[in-house]
Amino acid sequence: xxxxxxxxxxxxxxFSSYLFGSxxxxxxxxWDCEPYVMxxxxxxxxxxxxxxxxxxxxxxxxxxxTVEYPNGFSFTFEVELIGTWTFKSNIIDIKFEQSTFLxxxxxxxxxxxxxxIADDQLVKKNWAKxxxxxxxxxxQFKAVDPMHKExxxxxxxxxx
Length: 160
Fold this sequence. Notes:
Elements: H1 3-27, E1 29-33, E2 36-39, E3 44-53, E4 58-68, E5 74-88, E6 91-104, H2 111-124, E7 127-135, E8 138-144, E9 154-159
Antiparallel strand pairs: 1-3, 1-9, 2-3, 3-4, 4-5, 5-6, 6-7, 7-8, 8-9
């Protein structure tokens, strides 16, 4: 192998690492996402997420969702998700380790019932993959293989 080939290989590895690290570091911090709507025939869910991507790979998100029915009935609940994240090839890969039910304004969903629902959801799917569409002053992404097809929406966030 010639010195030029070795040098070019080294530069390629160096710049890949440099660019990946730089892009990944743009994600680090607290984000505030615009509310987005997941429509379905029976109800709509309006979600407001506040994710935090830590430099050490830790992930924390508080998600507030309002479920609205056509008859006007609605309720709101909040859940905290904790896990880890990585970023590679424009994909944010999140592994959820814990889900904590925080609150609900519905008398039918007390802390115990809400936590059971959160735990059951975590058992069904303890990961998320998000394809980054843009990353700069704003972060825009779409879910890759979401649990519910209604969640296939563009999400826009800004640094908090």
